[in-house]
Amino acid sequence: MSGVGAKPGVCAMSEATGVNRPTSGTDKATEFWLWLDDACEGFGDRVNPILVKETRQALKSRQFVVTFSLLLFAALAWTIAGSLSMMPQIYTTPSAQRMLVGYYIVLAIPMLLVVPLAAYRSLEGEIDDGTLELLSITFLSPKQIVLGKLASASLQMLLYFIALFPCVAYAYTLRGVDLPTVMLLMACLLVAGLLLTTIALFFAPLAVSRTGRIATLLAVLLILVIAEYAVAGLSISLILYGNPLTTQWVSFLVVATLLIAIAFGYLLTSAAAAQLTPESENRSTTLRVACTGLSATLLGLAAVAVWSLGNDSQVVLAMAGVSLLMLWTLAGSMMAAESNAMTPRIRRELPSSFLARMFLTWLTPGPTTGIVFASINVVVLGVTFDFLATEFRRQYGVVPLGPRSPGVLRQIIVLVCAYLMGYLVFVRGVMAVVRINNHPRVEIGIAAMVAVSVLGALVPYSVGMHLNDYRAYPYSTWQITNWVWTTHQAVDGNLSGLMVFLIAGFVGIGVLGSVLAAGHHVLPGRIATPDKVKQELARS
Q1: CB atoms within 10 A of CB 439
Q2: Which residues of the chain have pLDDT under 50?
């Protein structure tokens, strides 16, 4: 025990950890390392308990032992077989490419297939066994549970990397592959593994029934196998044929991949945590913030491409535009399918000040706030995309993405934004009718969007065909809801500005009418927190 009268050379007990420490003869360096040791032990006590639990289970599981043993055996076997097969040319001829391809295959299988599938089964097992309900009554939030699973998978990947690092170093010494290529290959494999693990964790709580879980398992397997082949094709071609891109393109792609992976991974982890969160809590705000973050990331990368990649940035503009359209079609459909019901627990967390209600109300749950939030983002994205197209034409002298004039491109942007916003209003109406006697999940909003968009194009076209005795007929104002034909007319330059103005005006009136019809559901008031709830929160 430490105390008064401790003699030199006698060990004293550390107050933080209970470990015996020398009380005399310690210099500043020793004191620093002792402090660092105590700090690390304290951090280990405060780290996510799910990470500790999952790491212990994973490292003791048969899956990890078998996979790690097979990894070591395969690496050793390829080292011997690959080296002997290239004898004696291995001493005089660059041989790194062939060896590195083998090591990549050995490492990619557990990284891109075994670890994500194990993370999926781990979270699904928690749900099946009912242990997730026990975790929900602790101080752990659903997001901590998901992040703990992801951190445990990341630790397993790190162990696989460490095990194969000497082999990769051996392949590099054989010459034929430069160091930047090796680093780029390992970084690509790591990012792909983490992203696939996040996707697997997103699918784990998606289904409730046994049939649905089998379907999600098959979907996860399909995604992992496709990703395995896609990343393998990219990586092996990079090893064998080198990097054909310029330094500017490589820098842009590296930064873009990291930013998109972070933003998309945050969205998926937030979605997985939202599925584990009870309906009595706010599950919408984090998802809406994550969607806005991913949208801003894609738009920012498109802007950087326009100002730095020259005429080839049209590819980035097109990919960013398609990705943003898909993002807000899916996200907006689910927002419009939310329920109007708001529990007292959610209302106690609503913004109270005037400025907060003005800017943050659209992040609160509800179909009307979801439509307004999605519409604001769509309008901002449309205006920004038009600005980028104008800047591209000013710098390089051509209209990007194929249209013959800037006016045609602007019409297409306005039509895409208007139809998306208008169909979201229809989805909200359809889901309001469905919710009269049912309690559907928000994913049904995607099916409602598909049905509304198909009927919106098919019904007016079929009516026109019937009225014209099933003969070809010209475009008219009656096809205003037919987004396919109307957009095709705009692409061909045959759509008048008046028609575009009418469509945008009708959509604006529809969105405004939807907001006004919702009444008090648009701006729900905050309620006071009861004293008993305050006392319980203070005790926790």
Answers
A1: 9
A2: 1-25
